[in-house]
Amino acid sequence: GAITRGLERDDYGELPSLVADHGVYRLMITNEVNETQYTNQLQLMIVDHAPGTTIKADEFGHFYAFDSLAAPTSARDSYGRDLGPWLAASDHLVWEPVVPPDSAHGVRQEITLTFAKPPSASHAFLVARVATGLWGSQMIRAFSQLRGTSLHDWYAAMDTSPTQAAALRAWNLREELYALKLEVDEPTGWEVRGILPGGGPFLPADRVVQLDLSHVRGDSLRIRIRPPYGFWALNYFAIAYRTDGAVHAKTVDAATAHTSDGRELLSDLAAVDDRYYEMPNTGDHGYLTFVAPPQAAGTTRTVFAHARGYYRLHLDPTNPPDSVTLARFLAVPDAAARFAAARYAQSHPRVAIAR
Q1: How far apart are CA 194 and CA 196, in angstroms?
Q2: Cα torsion for 279, 281, 283, 286, to the nearest 10°?
Q3: How far is CA 106 from the centre of its chain?
Q4: What pLDDT, on the 0 to 100 scale, is given for residue 257?
Q5: Orientation of helix 335-347 relative to helix 323-331, angle to 10°
Q6: Rounded to an integer, what distance in angstroms lies between the CA atom of residue 221 and that of residue 225?
Q7: Which secondary-structure segment (H or E) carries 173?
Q8: Beta carbons of 139 and 343 less than 8 angstroms apart
Q9: How remote is the C-alpha of 160 from its chain's centroid?
Q10: What is this structure's pTM?
Q11: Arithmetic mean of pLDDT over the chain
Q12: Closest CA to 241 of 100, 121, 158
C-alpha cells in the first residue's frame, strides 16, 4: 500500500534460496506489474547463527532467534471449521477465504488461534506468514480510481503532510484492510495487543509481533483475528515465549549495481535519500552484486533483503472524484470492505460459498 512517496516504507524479506557464487551474492530486481516502482535503498542483512535456530524479522528491522516455534493447538473460523491443515505449517498451503455472495454474511471472517502457554509467560512472539489477498491488492487500484481527477492532489497531500499520511494509516488500521489487529483473550474480553502488517500479494512474508500477555490467565493463549474477506492470504502462525539470545545482523551494501542496459545504479540504491531506482515499465530490471562476508565456522547463515521505497499505479483518471463514496469510507466502519465485496459480486456473480 505504499502507493506514493509519503507512504514509503522499509521491508525485510528473507532470501532462503540465495547462495554465494564464488564469494558473491547476485540479485536481480525487477518490475513485474503495471506500475512504476521507486526503490530508494537495497542492501543485505546477514545473520550467522547456531544450527537449529530460526531467524525472523519484524517490520522495524529487529531480528529474533528462536530455538523452537509452536504451531497452534487449534485454529478455527467463525463456523467452527478446522483451519489447522492450512495455518499450522510454513508450506505452500495458503488460506484465502472467498468473498461472500451477499451482505448477509458480513464482510469479515473471524479466526481464533489457540496455543499452549506456560502459566508464567508474560509475553510472547507471534510469527506469522501472511500476504495481501489478490482481491485486496486490486482494490488499492479501485480505491485510487475513486479519487478521479483529484488523485494527483491526493498524492501531493500524502507526500507533503505527515499528518494526513498518519490519518490514512490510522484509517487503514481501523478497517484492517492492509494491517490486522491481534486480539488476545483476557478476563476483560478480547483486547488488541499487537498489529500484524500486511505485505505484497504474491509471496507471503514472515513477520514477528511481540504480544503482552501480562493479563492472560491459565495455560492457553487465544488470539483472534478478523480479516475482511478478500484482503488477506494466510499461510501459517506459530508462537514462541522466549528468544535464543541477541542477534547480530551484518549489513552488506551492494558492490555493483546496474540496469539491464548498463546504467549505473549504485548511487541510487546506496542510502535513504532523494535518489531512486525508477522502473516505469513492466519488465524493467537491474542487477546487483554483494560481496559475501566470511562465515564463522559451525554456523548457519540466513540472509534478508532490506528494501525501502514506494510505487505509483499506472492510472490516468478522467472522471470527477466520487466524493460520496470516499466520505462514506471515512465515516462508516467497514464501508470500504463492503464496497470491495460488492465489486467482487459484480465480477464473480456465480460464486457459491461451501459451508
Answers
A1: 7
A2: -20
A3: 24
A4: 98
A5: 130
A6: 13
A7: helix 162-175
A8: yes
A9: 24
A10: 0.92
A11: 93
A12: 121
Q: Cβ distance 145 to 105 under 8 Å?
A: no
- Judge contact between 277 and 240, C-beta under 8 A: no
Q: Residue 103: which pLDDT band, with cuts at 50, 70 and 90? A: low
Closest of 210, 205, 219, 241 to residue 67, by C-alpha: 241
pLDDT over 90 (residue 212): yes
* Residue 189 Ramachandran class (φ > 0 left, ψ -120 to 50 alpha, else beta): left
Q: Is the pLDDT of residue 67 over 70?
A: yes
- Outline where 25-133 has alpha helix (H): 84-87
Single-letter code of the amino acid located at 342? A
* CA distance linking residue 232 with residue 226, whole number of Å: 10
Q: Is the pLDDT of residue 261 over 60?
A: yes
Residues 28-48 as b/e (b if ≥16 CB within 10 A, e otherwise) read: ebebeeebbbbbbbbbbbbbb
Residues 6+ apart with CB under 8 A from 78: 109, 110, 111
Lowest average pLDDT, out of 104-108, 143-147, 329-333, goes to 104-108
Residues contacting 314, CB < 8 A, separation 6+: 34, 35, 36
Query: In this structure, what is the dihedral angle of CA atoms 350, 80, 192, 167, given to the nearest 10 degrees?
Result: 0
Grid cell 484492510 in the structure block, residue: 177
Query: Is pLDDT at 101 greater than 70 in this prediction?
Result: no
